[in-house]
From TrEMBL:
Enzyme class at the top of the EC tree: transferase
GO molecular function: 15-cis-phytoene synthase activity; geranylgeranyl diphosphate synthase activity; squalene synthase [NAD(P)H] activity
Protein name, UniProt field: 15-cis-phytoene synthase
EC number of this enzyme: 2.5.1.32
Cellular component, GO annotation: plastid
Pathways involved: Carotenoid biosynthesis; phytoene biosynthesis; all-trans-phytoene from geranylgeranyl diphosphate: step 1/1
Domain of life of the organism encoding this protein: Eukaryota
Catalytic activity: 2 (2E,6E,10E)-geranylgeranyl diphosphate = 15-cis-phytoene + 2 diphosphate
Keywords, comma-separated and alphabetical: Carotenoid biosynthesis, Isoprene biosynthesis, Transferase
């Protein structure tokens, strides 16, 4: 997740046309072998995944996921009708167009991937993207120096207003209209705001359990928001829980990759988004990270972190091809591109302290037809 650069004012109505600010890159895995999991029957595979994740102290079926899945799969058409936003169609068209432009400018590859989706799904994804980006910018944007808990409290109240059909500006109106049309629950949105709170009070994570919760809040939540919009393929033979778990795992993998890509930049800001106990296992201290020296211990530590991120990407594949066919392209694009960031870290000899791994434009363009082909694969092929 790399939400966009939009400021938040608690005192006056935001001018929707003029509030797009300069973009800023987001900052933001022990040793689990992904290849241990994927060659057994679905039932045994599920058990194996559960066991491997439990080793890390992370329950496979996250209680928050269970809660969100239950709520979002039990929203009826009657519930959605009760949410009717009743906005003027021309106003909504303008609001969604603003969201589209932001998504196109700041998430070009993802935006292109949405072009196969139905118009209604496209608009909804753009609206969610903008809300996530604005939320992230509260902590990491140009006005971050003025951020405090009261600002996040007001932003959370504003979220409540959106879900209560009382939007504050055009961007809010687009999201309000989206929740009127799709079975979205407020829980993942609130959890993302909680992730922003974590960013204001934590710059160290004692272990992976703590880091996992951070990754869930700031990125895993995006997957939970997106599934109701993208939809599950009618021909899918797996449960909604499986698809939601896959979406969560993709968010976790993406955020772990962001962290690994940006270690050096975060160190300059006095932040270490790495499990402290695992650093200690390799004889690495915060001071070593701040010194930005790539040692053999650092390379070995990075190998384990990259292995973990790839493990989560492999889990994400379990559900990616069970989404609605028209919605799979952006998901597969994300999977492939983020894996290439991990490849780039390896190609830099694990120097993510003084170098920033990136995927060039040419490589990105090459991945598009590959991800498109994967998006067309039958759901049954992805699980068996």
């Amino acid at each position: 997740m790399c939400p966009a650069a939009l400021s938040y004012s608690s005192n006056s109505c935001l001018n929707a046309r003029n509030e797009i600010l300069s973009s800023k890159k987001c900052k933001k895995n022990l040793p689990i072998r992904a290849d241990q999991v994927l060659t057994v029957s679905p039932k045994k595979r599920e058990q194996s995944i559960h066991e491997l994740l439990s080793v890390q102290g992370i329950a496979h079926t996250h209680r928050r996921v269970r809660e969100v899945v239950w709520k979002q799969t039990n929203v009826t058409n009657e519930n959605l009708c009760c949410r009717n936003s009743r906005f003027d169609p021309m106003f909504l068209d303008e609001a969604y167009e603003l969201c589209r432009k932001i998504c196109e400018e700041y998430a070009k590859t993802f935006y292109l991937g949405t072009k196969l989706m139905t118009e209604e799904r496209q608009k909804a994804i753009w609206a969610i993207y903008v809300w996530c980006r604005r939320t992230d910018e509260l902590v990491d944007g140009p006005n971050a120096d003025y951020m405090n808990n009261s600002v996040l409290d007001r932003w959370e109240q504003r979220l409540e207003d959106i879900f209560n059909n009382k939007p504050y500006d055009m961007f809010d109106a687009a999201l309000t209209d989206t929740i009127c049309k799709f079975p979205l629950d407020i829980k993942p949105f609130k959890d993302m705001i909680e992730g922003m709170r974590m960013d204001t009070r934590k710059s160290r994570y004692a272990n992976f359990q703590e880091l996992y919760m951070y990754c869930y809040c700031v990125a895993g939540t995006v997957g939970l928001m997106s599934v109701p919009i993208m939809g599950i393929a009618p021909e899918s033979s797996v449960s909604a829980q499986t698809v939601y778990n896959a979406a969560l795992h993709l968010g976790i993998g993406n955020q772990l990759t962001n962290i690994l890509r940006d270690v050096g930049e975060d160190a300059l800001r006095g932040r270490v988004y790495l499990p402290q106990d695992e650093l200690a296992q390799f004889g690495i201290r915060d001071e070593d990270v701040f010194a930005r020296k790539v040692t053999d211990q650092w390379r070995e530590f990075m190998k384990e972190q990259i292995r973990r991120a790839r493990f989560y990407f492999n889990l994400a594949e379990e559900g990616a091809s069970h989404l609605n066919k028209a919605s799979r392209w952006p998901v597969w694009s994300s999977l492939i591109l983020y894996r290439k960031i991990l490849d780039a870290i390896e190609e830099n000899d694990y120097d993510n302290l003084t170098k920033r791994a990136y995927v060039g434009r040419a490589k990105k363009l090459v991945t598009l037809p590959v991800s498109y082909a994967r998006a067309l694969s039958l759901p049954s092929l992805a699980i068996q």
